[in-house]
Design a protein that fits this description.
The chain is of the alpha/beta class. The chain has a single domain, classed as NAD(P)-binding Rossmann-like Domain (Rossmann fold). Helix content is about 40%, strand content about 15%. It contains 8 helices and 7 strands, in the order αβαβαβαβαβαβααβ. A 7-stranded parallel beta sheet has the order 3-2-1-4-5-6-7, sandwiched between helices. Helix 2 packs across helix 8, helix 4 packs parallel to helix 5 and helix 5 packs parallel to helix 6.
């Protein structure tokens, strides 16, 4: 379709262009990862469901039986380069290629001030939240660059953009994801590969559900302009949007979704 024709043609149903695509999601446990694979499959993508726990990978793949797209369970510890390379090869063999990659893997680690942080905590939090994103992106780029197309979405956090008291290692790692994605976007734009990030605020995943309950719920209701935590499916929608053709001219960007928390006026009494 020519540019003039595209501009004058009304989109029908805003087709995201994911039907028949080959996707791989890293970290498919209950929460954002599982919602990503469900949405991708519902839109017609065949999805490799990768997790360090074989049972979680199998459960995620089985959950796609009712959708147009298929699910393939694969197991990988993303902290180990040899396993990442293997699972990318297995994904290409199973699906015939990789068009979309979403990496959800991450964890805050134990809380504590930098002055008292053990070396192994700093190292382990950085490894799980940043280093593995490098490993996964590096391996996934191989088949994408060879085919001169692809979309990569990395899950960061609003911790990347402000202070992270008692979670400094996590904040540093999440900021690193944003910076790395920008570099990857420019390096790989000539090959037709887009790279973007999603930076959620507090999200009501099974691991973080306590934030929406009890006394903490009131704290978040008053501190987040929209008055609630994000739902995992909302974060998945943002990630899949960036992965899809609907964001075909978007690369190197971070979509912040935090209910307005990071843009509200910081002084309670106003100005």
């Amino acid at each position: 379709m020519t540019d003039d024709a595209a501009a004058s043609t009304a989109p029908v149903g805003l087709d995201p262009g994911l039907a028949g695509s080959r996707a791989v999601v890293f970290g498919v446990g209950p929460g954002i990862g599982l919602e990503c694979v469900r949405l991708l499959a519902a839109l017609g993508a065949d999805v490799a469901c990768v997790d360090v726990e074989p049972d979680r990978a199998a459960e995620a793949a089985a959950a796609l039986a009712e959708y147009p797209g298929s699910g393939t369970p694969l197991t990988c510890d993303v902290r180990r380069p040899e396993q990442v390379g293997r699972v990318v090869d297995e994904t290409v063999a199973a699906l015939g290629g990789i068009d979309v990659m979403i990496n959800v893997v991450g964890h805050g680690g134990p809380a504590g001030p930098v002055a008292e942080m053990p070396d192994d905590v700093w190292r382990d939090v950085r490894t799980l939240n940043l280093d593995q994103h490098f490993l996964v992106a590096r391996e996934v780029l191989r088949p994408m660059v060879a085919r001169r197309r692809g979309s990569i979405v990395l899950i960061s956090s609003i911790n990347a953009f402000g202070s992270s008291p008692l979670r400094a290692a996590y904040g540093v790692a999440k900021a690193g994801i944003v910076s790395m994605a920008r570099s990857l976007a420019i390096e790989n734009a000539p090959y037709g590969v887009r790279v973007n990030t999603v930076a959620p605020g507090p999200t009501r995943t099974p691991r973080r559900r306590h934030l929406a309950e009890g006394e903490l719920a009131d704290v978040y209701r008053t501190s987040i302009p929209l008055g609630r935590l994000a739902e995992p499916y909302e974060v998945a929608r943002a990630a899949v949007f960036l992965a899809s053709d609907l964001a075909g001219y978007v690369t190197g960007e971070t979509l912040v979704m935090d209910g307005g928390a990071t843009v509200k006026y910081s002084v309670p009494a106003g100005n």
